[in-house]
Every structure is written in structure tokens, then in C-alpha cells.
Amino acid sequence: MPQVLSLGELLVEMMRPAVDQPLDEPGQFVGPFPSGAPAIFVDAVARLGMSCGFIGVVGDDPFGRCVTRRLEADGVDMCHVRVVSHRTTGIAFVSYRSDGSRQFLFHLPESAAALLSPEDVHEDYLRGVRALHVTGSALSVSESSREACYRAIDLCKQYGAMVSFDPNIRPELLGVNVVRTLCEPVLQSCDILLPSGAEAAMLTGDADEDTACRALVARGVPIVVLKRGARGCVVFTEQGRVEIPAYRVTEIDPTGAGDAFAGGFVVALLRGMSVTEAARFASAIGALAVTRQGPMEGLPTLAEVQTFMNSVQE
Ligand code: ATP
Ligand code: MG
After folding, report:
1. Which atom of ligand 1 is nearest to the CA of 283?
2. CB within 6 Å of ligand 1 — which residues?
3. Is the pTM of this model over 0.85?
4. pLDDT at site 313
């Protein structure tokens, strides 16, 4: 039985090979790269050698096989991934701008991923789980996907598993109030919250990310980890605030760093590391993740992380 579980959208990513190639002009793409925030998380966990499983839906098509084959090959239990013939696998098109921003085009609400529902979440499968990871993206793909997440959280809390939450919802699509409403039940139950600065600010309404993270701890989230890309991360708990610098690497593709970081953080805590040690370990995985094109391509094994942490300067 898997010790770590995630659920939500499985998709492939097609990206522009160079910066400043907008999506509204003809041109080249590279891909398909296996992707989906909760899928990148679980792949990071599998690469680190911890038993894990995934609950999701793909189409019976080449893109579905691309992502499921990768997760399977890396050791993720895919017994609870459903394959449907009447919808195609989710797709994200991505273009990077030279100012560091990204342009996304998603084929998701109409994709197989949106069919995830509470019936896909089997109680027996969750009984032995020690950690569940939930993403804002899976809460926003469809109502049934959201209900599946809420059910998984309820069951995991009953069985004493820890719940981590990455609130990676784009407010420009849903509006801030809707996003807050969707996240509220998860904020009430999660043990670990992993926001970016903008996400923390959006959740509380505080303009300052530090103030927002303190407010999230004050309202009862035991561990809040603020992710700041190449500027590293900050861990907030009742004990206070600890800054962890980023490792210095050459960033090739930032997409998925946050999910890889979350996978590393959860694995580290389950292995008995302190919160600060776990954040340092997770930073190494986030750093390695950005060194390769494609969200899962840079995910390291445990041995690779250890070699990297011993060899580079923070
Ligand atoms: P995404 O939404 O694309 O998955 P995110 O915004 O959730 O990413 P980031 O802050 O970009 O998450 O990355 C998570 C962590 O990974 C950072 O806190 C940092 O430790 C590490 N990291 C990310 N980018 C870099 C970088 N360019 N150099 C070194 N470390 C990085
Ligand atoms: Mg993120």
C-alpha cells in the first residue's frame, strides 16, 4: 500500500523551445512532457524512493500513455488511475517570456482529468496512507474533482495521515472570493501549506507575503512554507520564521519547481527530518527540478540529491 498519495489532473505539457515565442503565432513546440501539479509531486516522491500512488483520470490516447508510463516507470502505483475512451488527456501549452513570466493555455475542464470524482477515491486505498498532497489546481479543474479532493482529505484525516496543500490556483480565472471559498475546507484540515507569495497574499488579503504567512499560522496551519523561486523559501511555524536560501543553479525551466519541492518536503518529514532540515532538502530538489526542460525531467533520486547537497554551495 502506498505511504504517500496525491490526486488530481494528469496532463502533458507542450512548450515553446525558446523565450518570447507567444502562443498566438505559428511556430514550434517541444513535448509532450508528462505534467500536472499533483503528478509532478508524486513523481518527485517516487524518484526519492518512497512508496506512493496516484488517483486520476486520463484518456485512452498517446498523451495519456505518455504520462502514465512515466509515473509507472518511476514507481508510482497507478492502479487507481482510470482510463476513459470518450475524453482526451489534458494538455497545457506554455510559453516563457524573457521577463520570467509565463503564458499558459490549458485544455483541462473538457479533458479526462475533469472526470475525477469522489467515486474514484476508495476508502481501502487510503487506509495506510501517511501523507496526502492536495493542489489548488485539482480543486479548480471541475466540481467533481474538487469533491474527490475533499473526500480524500476527510478520509486521510480520519486515518491520521498528514495533509499538505499547494494553493496553486490562478485567481485571474476564478476570482479571489471563489478561490478562497474553494480553499477554505483544505486550509482547515491541512498540516502543511506551501504557497508562493502571491498565493499567501490572496488567501488572507494581506498585501505583504510575510504578514500573510504569519496570519495563516495564527489561524491554525501548523507549517507554512513560503516558496520564493531563486530567492529560496521561508518556513513559518508557531516557533517563528526561518529563511532557507536557494541553491545556486542555472534555471532552464521553472515549471514544476514548487511541486518537486513539496514532494521533497513531505518525504523528508516522513523520514524524520526536522522542519528546517526538510526545507533544506526540499530546496535541493526544487533547484534540481529547474535545471532541465520539462517539469518532471530534472527530478532527482535520493542519491542524486545527496551528491548535489554535498557538492554545491548554498
Ligand atoms: P511552480 O508553480 O512553477 O511549481 P512555485 O512558484 O510553486 O513553482 P518556486 O518558488 O518557483 O515554486 O520553487 C520552489 C522552490 O524551489 C523554491 O523555494 C526554491 O527553493 C527552489 N527553486 C525554484 N527556482 C529555483 C532557482 N531558479 N534556483 C534555485 N532554486 C530554485
Ligand atoms: Mg506553485
Report:
1. 20
2. 168, 196, 227-230, 232-233, 246-247, 249, 251, 254-259, 261, 283, 286-287, 290
3. yes
4. 53
